[in-house]
Amino acid sequence: MTQTIAVIRGDGIGPEIMDATLQVLDSLDVGLDYEFVEAGTGALESQGELLPQATLESIRKHKVALKSPLMTPVGGGFSSINVQLRRIFDLYANVRPAISFPNTKSRYSNIDMITVRENTEGAYRSEGQTLSEDGEIAKSEIQVTRKGSERIARYAYELAKSTGRKKVTIVHKANIIKTASGLFLETARRVAEEYPEIETQEMIVDNACMQLVMRPEQFDVVVTTNLFGDIMSDLCAGLVGGLGLAPGANIGEEAAIFEAVHGSAPDIAGKGLANPCALLLAAAQMLDHLGKQDKAERLRAAIIATLEAKDSLTPDLGGSGTTSSFAAAIAKRVAA
After folding, report:
1. Which domain holds residue 234?
2. Average confidence (pLDDT) over 26-38
3. Number of domains in the chain
4. DSSP 3-state assignment of 230?
5. Any bridge partners for residue 116, and if so which?
6. Inter-helix orientation angle 14-28/323-335, to 10°
7. Are 195 and 139 found together in one domain?
8. Which residues are designated catalytic?
9. What is the residue-wise DSSP string for 80-148?
10. Isopropylmalate dehydrogenase-like domain spans which residues (predicted)?
C-alpha cells in the first residue's frame, strides 16, 4: 500500500537536494507517492502568491510534507513562509536531532541529542511587532501560554520515553524574563513530575550555550521556547559538522512537515555542489513518523556508510562529488 505525501521543491538549491532525496527514497522502496506543490519565490513567479491555497490543501489532505528550503529575506520583504506554515497547521513541536557523523568537520565525535523547540508562540509572533512612525522605536511582543508550554514539554518527555533517552534539560531565562520564561519553566516542571523515570535538569539559556560548547555529551533531550530553540539548535548543528547535516521536523496534531533547516543558498544553486544530507535525514525523520522505522534506520545507515567510505562526498564534506553523485552513492547502499 502506498501513501502520498506533499513535496515542496523549494528555492535556490532546493530542487537539487529534493531530486537527490527522492532518488534515494525510491531506491529504498518505501511505498511513497509524491504530490508536487509550490511555495516560495517559485510559487510567486508561477502563481502570483508565495503560499498558494493548493499547497495548503495538499498538506491538509496528505498530513505529511517533505520540504526543501524556502528563501526568507532579511529585514524587509515578505515574512517567513516557514513560520506561516507552522502557524497555519499548528505545528507546535520543532524537533532537531544533532548526531555526530564520521568524516565531518567537527570537534566532537560523541554527540547524540535532540532539541525540542516550541514552534508557534514566544518571540516569533508577527502580530506583536511594531515600529514607530519615526522609525526610532521597534517593539516586539513575547507571548507564552500555559497550553503551549505544557504540550511542548509533554512532547519532549514522551519523545525521551519512547526513544529510551534518559534526561530532559529544560532551558529557560526565568531569572530575567520572569513572566514569559517563568511561566514556561513552571509549566515544564509540573510536566516533569509525571515522568519520574526520566532525569530532569534545568539550565539558564546562556549557561546552556556555554555547556554545549564545552561539554555537549551531557545533553540528551533539550526542551525550550521558540527563540532559544532556534538559536541553540543551530549551535548544535555546528557541533556536528554544520547545517548540511541538520534535519528538522515540525509536528502538529493534524499535520507534519519535514525539512532541511539550512537556507536556500542561491549562490551555489544549479552548480551541483549542495549537500543533500540534511533533507535525507529529514526524510528519515518522516519515515519514523510514518511508522517505517526499519526503512529510516536503513537510510541513516547508508548515509553513515557513504560518509565512512568518503564516496562521492560534496565539497563541504571534503570531497569532489556532486549532489547527484553523492545521492547515487547513498542510493546504491540503501538498495543493497
Report:
1. 107-239
2. 96
3. 2
4. helix
5. 95, 223
6. 10
7. yes
8. 124, 173, 206, 230
9. PHHHHHHHHTT--EEEEEEE--TTSS-S-S--EEEEEEE-SSBTT-GGGEEE-TTS--EEE--B--HHH
10. 4-330
